[in-house]
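B., you asked whether I could sanity-check this one before it goes into the benchmark set. Here's the sequence:
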Amino acid sequence: MADLRRSPHRWRPVLALLLLAPLVGEYLLGNTPVTELGSLPLYLPLYGCGALLIREMTRRTGRGWPTMLLLGAAYGLWEEGPVDQMLWNPQYGGFDFGLTYAGTHVPLLGTSVALLQDVVSMHMIWSISVPIALVEAFRRDPQRPWLGRPGLIVTGLVFAVGSAGLAAIQYAANGRFMASAWQWTVGLVAIAGLILAAFLVPHIPRRQVETAAPNPWLAGCAAFALTSAYWVGQAVLRDRVSDWALVIGWLALAAIAAVVGINWSQRRGWAAEHRAAVAVGALLTYVWVGFTHASDMGVPMSTALIGNVVFGTGALLLAAAALRSAASGRPADSGPAGSVDSDRSTSTGR
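And here's what the prediction gave me:
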């Protein structure tokens, strides 16, 4: 099979991922209104290049989704820590983060446990993993690298410059706030630890489990239910239960997702169609969340509704196309989502 990096269409998935990461992470969520669609290029160096770097480093080293998820968590801490300092700024963006997350603030960490969970959830799942999985659903060889070494270097440089530029913008926009040396140290150590863990996580071998994998629709519904449960908890329970109860609830959801995901992905018949369904399930959660989150961000109701309709419709069309592509058997990969790619020699493109 030819290396995609030598294919005349090699830039299609690259461009798709560069655009999809910020469109899902910012616009579909409702963080950025449709009236600011012109700001999309500003998000490409951080969101787009970040997702592309994570995807390429994972595939080039012959690793799988555990590595991508851990790198996605590291990306979340990077964006909301050193880049915009939301993890540490109690008045970030004019919102009272200090009061909202005061119940789980841990001085030793220099931030709130609940805020860390929110940051990791949003970026690991929706900014990174969902866009990658959706774009890979359209590829015959989803585990192959898309970039050569020069492209990888350029992507890394753009990501670094974009991070520095956005950090400067956020510093000026948030009253020139600067976190303490301790907060920076803890944050950078946590990011480095996640990156190290991502490349040390052991390979989960595919066992010969005779139990059949669930229907892809069931896998997608499970992803939708688990990710929706997280957001329902944030919206409904935050003022009704203790903050630490929500932290425990988050850990329970994460544990359920990990156990179910590993179990199902080891079963006979688990394939690209299932991975696409899981990504679509999580994507559809943002479709309904966007209708409520935009108003929480102070966006006028009419603007929020227009944006929700535009981006929600786009998400539904993309979901249908990804499921159709995966079901048609175009992607040739059949390795489990929770494991390293089955063919290390071909996945690295060497």
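One thing to flag: The chain has one domain: 7-347. Otherwise nothing jumped out at me.
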